[in-house]
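Appendix C reproduces, verbatim, an entry submitted by the partner laboratory led by Prof. M.T., so that reviewers can inspect both the input and the predicted structure.
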Amino acid sequence: METEKKQSSAVSDVGAWAMNVISSVGLIMANKQLMSPAGYAFVFATTLTGFHFCVTALIGLVSNATGYTTKKYVPLWELLWFSVVANTSITGMNLSLMLNSVGFYQISKLSMIPVVCVMEWILHGKHYSSRVKIAVIVVVVGVGVCTVTDVKVNAQGFICALVAVLSTSLQQITIGSLQKKYSIGSFELLSQTAPIQAVSLLLFGPFVDYFLSGKLLASYKFSSAALFFILLSCSLAVFCNISQYLCIGRFSATSFQVLGHMKTVCVLTLGWLLFDSELTLKNILGMALAVIGMVVYSWAVEADKQTDSKVIPLRKDPSEEDVKLLKQQVDPVKDVELGSRSQG
């Protein structure tokens, strides 16, 4: 009986892991195909983000109605502020994906590691160990090499990536602050902000898209294939959200980091195979440096946490500690291009 339970648990763990990787990576590929000129040239990235948040808001309403989540009080002005930051973050990420190569888009997201470190140092006076600083330097060098060697990087795409990284880093810090301040989970926060974000993006999104692309949404010729990819994009965002919360609580913080690394490698590999044909040795070297820096950074942070925990006389059960750590510090917005706070 116990053997059957263990086998069933292992199968469900693998299923949750696979769902998260496939939906996260698949969503980036679907969005790139939808928005790229070589695909269906749906250049309305802000509006697409609005579509995502409509679906996300609907999931939040269903979750509240079924009692899966409970609504907790957060002041309206804080929800509005967070929505502005989150909208800027996710729209910037989608624009970066549309204007840049998949490789540069994914590598530029890794630059959030040093940006978050600097922001936390400035805002909260947080200090880091030497090994964390070395890992951050490796990431910065890798991202820098990718930036100067990627032949497809242009001024507009670079600016969008810069805005996306800065706003997403601020968003991650804001999420942690709101969760601690109001004892609210990521999904509960998401269910309150998603309707605000959906309405604002659908109202102002078409104007933003027109300003950036010079094209009107009404003039776009929706083919059956384009509609399919829009629906696929929204559906994958839902699965990514669900799998994110299935993974939290099942895996340790370390396993969750490995999951993120796997998604990064998958995105880089598939992006190169499906979309990017021009890769130089220096470009590959930059990507490798950035990914190595990301892995070392994760190890260094975990090592620091274990070192700090040794000075604490009373420690909670490791599984409970991992769950708490994931809920408070692992931001489901890692896959920020999803139009949902699931961010890989």
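Residues 210 and 219 are 11 Å apart (CA to CA). Additional entries are available on request from the coordinating office.
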